[in-house]
């Protein structure tokens, strides 16, 4: 069986690359729902249905474990999938998200009391980061900012325009005196160098590509029954619901070579 990685577009490729680098021995299937992006502009019902369909597809591809790399899906669909969908249809499989591991790292040892988060409209509207952080550290304050223009620009590989747009968003957050900034979308690590440049040396940037691989490794160490199910042939498959020039260009830049993208219907 394999590890599935799902995202609404190419952002999850950043997570996939970092996971594969950390745990190269396992077999992976990546699925990007490029046909329906951006998820951040969809309704909660649409996001749940898209996510459930994608998870179901990956299970049919013989995945034992699925990482929902999309923050919007993690915020608006993950809990329902874990609590209702899995027990009914796939009680022996697991689906993990990215929000809780990210918050745990952002507020590690309660070091930061003023935390900013940027994400899609849907993620920010859900207030999941603010709600969950309150459970972890009631004293911390979180400042949320929707940054909807970034994902479409990244998907088109228009990184120069994305960086200019990011600069405007960062000015708004810096007025709040934030000590740490969560990149609450898997597309955003592509811009993390620019975020660090704009934020200065004192700003701690919490980037999911630096967190999720270690969290997954730890999960597999603690869940031997799941680790034993996953095959170790170092095979990788990259699937998308629509092949786009922007996706191909960014995929090549991330992996340093052309990767074979297969269009699928889910």
Rg for CA atoms: 17 Å
Mean pLDDT: 93
In the CATH hierarchy, the third-tier topology of the largest domain is known as Rossmann fold
What is the domain tally? 2
Biggest pleated-sheet summary: 6 strands, parallel
CATH architecture of the largest domain: 3-Layer(aba) Sandwich
Structural class: alpha/beta
- Could you spell the SSE succession in H and E letters? EHEHEHHEHEHHEHHEHEHHEHE
Helix content: 40-55%
User: How far is the N terminus from the C terminus?
Assistant: 19 Å
Task: Supply the CATH class of the largest domain.
Answer: Alpha Beta
Widest sheet: strand ordering: 4-3-1-2-9-10
Please state the overall shape, judged from the principal axes of the Cα atoms. Answer: globular
Low-confidence stretches: none
Beta-strand fraction estimate = 15-25%
Distinct helical segment count: 13
Extended strand count: 10
Molecular structure report:
Helix 1 packs across helix 11. The protein is of the alpha/beta class. The two termini are 19 Å apart. Strand 1, helix 1 and strand 2 form a beta-alpha-beta unit. The mean pLDDT is 93. It has a six-stranded parallel beta sheet with strand order 4-3-1-2-9-10, sandwiched between helices. A four-stranded parallel beta sheet has the order 6-5-7-8, sandwiched between helices. The chain folds into two domains: 151 residues, Rossmann fold (3-Layer(aba) Sandwich), CATH 3.40.50.1860; 109 residues, Rossmann fold (3-Layer(aba) Sandwich).
């Amino acid at each position: 069986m394999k590890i599935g990685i799902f995202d609404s577009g190419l952002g999850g490729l950043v997570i996939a690359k970092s996971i594969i680098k950390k745990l190269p021995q396992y077999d992976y299937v990546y699925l990007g729902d490029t046909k329906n992006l951006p998820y951040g502009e969809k309704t909660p019902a649409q996001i749940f249905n898209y996510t459930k369909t994608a998870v179901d597809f990956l299970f049919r591809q013989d995945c034992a474990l699925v990482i929902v790399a999309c923050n919007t899906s993690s915020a608006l669909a993950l809990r329902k999938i874990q609590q209702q969908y899995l027990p009914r249809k796939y009680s022996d499989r697991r689906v993990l998200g990215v929000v809780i591991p990210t918050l745990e790292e952002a507020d590690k040892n309660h070091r930061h009391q003023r935390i900013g988060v940027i994400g899609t409209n849907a993620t920010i509207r859900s207030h999941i980061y603010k709600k969950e952080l309150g459970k972890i550290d009631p004293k911390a304050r979180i400042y949320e900012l929707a940054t909807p223009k970034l994902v479409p620009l990244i998907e088109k590989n228009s990184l120069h325009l994305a960086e200019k747009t990011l600069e405007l968003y960062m000015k708004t957050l810096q007025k709040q005196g934030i000590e740490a900034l969560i990149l609450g979308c898997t597309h955003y690590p592509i811009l993390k160098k620019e975020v660090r440049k704009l934020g200065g040396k004192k700003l701690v940037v919490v980037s999911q590509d630096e967190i999720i691989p270690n969290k997954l490794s730890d999960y597999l160490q603690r869940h031997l029954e799941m680790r034993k199910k996953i095959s170790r042939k170092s095979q990788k498959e990259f699937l998308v619901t629509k092949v786009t020039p922007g996706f191909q260009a960014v995929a090549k830049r991330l992996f340093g070579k052309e990767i074979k993208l297969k269009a699928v219907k889910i």
